[in-house]
# Entry
Amino acid sequence: MDEQTLRIFLSLAETQNTRDTAAELRVNQSNVSRALARLEDEVGMVLFARHGKRLELNANGLAFRADAAGVLDAVESARRHAELIADEGRLLRVGFLHSVARWMVPDVIQRFRALRPDVRVSLRQGFARDLYGWLALDTIDVALSTAPLATSATSDDIGWQPLAEEPLCIAVPSGHPLAAASGPVDVRALAGRDFIGFSRIAELRTAVTGILDEADVAVNVTFESSEIDTMRSLVAGGLGVSILPRTPGRDDPGVVYLPLEPQRVRAIGIAWSTTAQGARYAKELVAALRER
# Structure
């Protein structure tokens, strides 16, 4: 399977017919049909339900679409990165957690651009384990992330400096019986309640599961996600309660945050590689952030 085949598949998912996809991608209609046949043969499953000339994604196709889009996004990111490296201009490659995109990333980037307006910046988001892997592979120069795990195989060439703390809180919808609490809440108050949890790929799952297990609290997990914004929205919609980090200075309509007793926090900071392509700029940024 190649890039063009994935583009044909994603276009078919939208147009639902080979003629419009051929016109959109400027290829022969027969090439579209053959590409789809090859793709379905390669993945070993039918991806579309056929209704005459109309094609509709089936369950297999719906699942495959997200992965195909992710692959093409990665290809585009790699292409842009290669173009930046080929450029004679200087570059700082910044990775960041999804959850800090709205509050920490803009501040850090603005500070760096004020410090070094002559250096270009590229951005890439991922989970903490991805970020530290990219640092080790010299794919990024700095990462806005949680601290590396003590058990991880993080290189001695990678440093980490804390920048902020997010308290872990019980998150409930406004109007929930617990929302009226005037102080910290014991996690045992969540026993038996519908709960929005972190999925297995999210680093915070271990921390939240540990909090519940330590208090011997069993909850009714109704949904799991790796996206904190999605979880906030589901809590606001009344679909359950959760344990989430509260972002400094952020107001989430419909969500009430209750401090945990005892208090738990998640430290967010900047990690950098001393041997990366942009190590010089990374060190300048870290020094500036330490002085703030």
Observations:
- The first helix runs from residue 3 to 15.
